[in-house]
Design goal:
42% helix; extended; 259 residues; single chain; 3 domains; 4-stranded mixed β-sheet; 3-stranded antiparallel β-sheet
């Protein structure tokens, strides 16, 4: 058995359950609608019919009045009506405490919290926000916002992180610098993505270099990206020089990984 969504000439979508018995296919239409949310609700209902057939014996046949009310309430509830608030309560509070809420872009808050709670691709982030937060987005909007974030808010984000680190540590006298590589599943190079020494062992794929500066106990200070064929020492010098305008008399330590 499986669920099929069939688009009709009228523009509506029919949600159907397809089953096979005695070498014959049986089509059961659960319902149809032009409303995407209603289509999703019908798909959930179809899935429930497959998983819990109508003639299946209930595990709890004798329900109390309270249980019956709860069951009736949940029966009429669609997936999109249930929102996960845990990440917002925990990570949202940290987001505000650090000071990132001065950036009045709702999408910035959404993708930061989503990244902490469910670190996946941009496409799956769109799915996560829709399923668990009821937020409708297209993946192109996230990519366009990331361009805007880099062009308009990068310095603000770094300043907020630096100020919070300085406030927490009281004094920044030592910074730790580490660098990693991020590769792309493509053969084409450009001005940023180049083939270079890969820490992932993907020497045939173009990559970029990501440099991160942190203070004691791992508190973030700043970051930057470089061309994929940049020598590590050069990126370190560039990062330290960019930081020197914020804080003088620092001792930089290149973190060595122990294997």
């Amino acid at each position: 058995m499986f669920i099929r969504r069939n688009r009709n000439r009228s523009g509506s979508v029919s949600v159907q359950i397809i089953s096979k018995k005695n070498r014959r296919y049986r089509v059961e239409t659960v319902g149809n609608s032009k409303n995407p949310e209603e289509v999703e609700r019908l798909a959930v209902e179809a899935k429930n019919r497959i998983n819990y057939p109508l003639n299946q014996t209930s595990l709890f046949p004798n329900l109390s009045k309270t249980d019956a009310v709860i069951k009736n309430f949940l029966k009429n509830m669609a997936n999109l009506q249930v929102h996960t608030i845990g990440p917002e309560i925990i990570f949202g509070a940290l987001f505000d405490r650090i000071g990132f809420n001065v950036i009045k872009e709702k999408l910035f808050r959404h993708i930061v919290i989503a990244r902490l709670a469910y670190p996946v691709s941009k496409l799956k982030t769109v799915d996560y926000l829709y399923r668990y937060r009821g937020i409708r987005l297209k993946v192109d909007k996230i990519y366009r916002f990331l361009d805007k974030l880099c062009d308009s808010y990068k310095e603000t984000v770094e300043r907020i992180a630096y100020d919070y680190t300085k406030q927490t540590l009281k004094n920044i006298s030592i910074v730790f610098y580490d660098m990693t590589t991020l590769y792309f599943e493509t053969d084409d190079e450009d001005d940023l993505r180049n083939i270079g020494f890969s820490k992932d062992g993907k020497f045939q794929n173009p990559q970029i270099m990501l440099g991160l500066l942190v203070g004691q106990h791992g508190y973030p200070i700043g970051y930057d990206i470089f061309e994929g064929n940049t020598f590590g020492k050069i990126s370190q010098i560039k990062n330290i020089n960019s930081l020197s305008g914020q804080e003088s008399k620092m001792k930089a330590i290149k973190r060595k990984k122990q294997y």
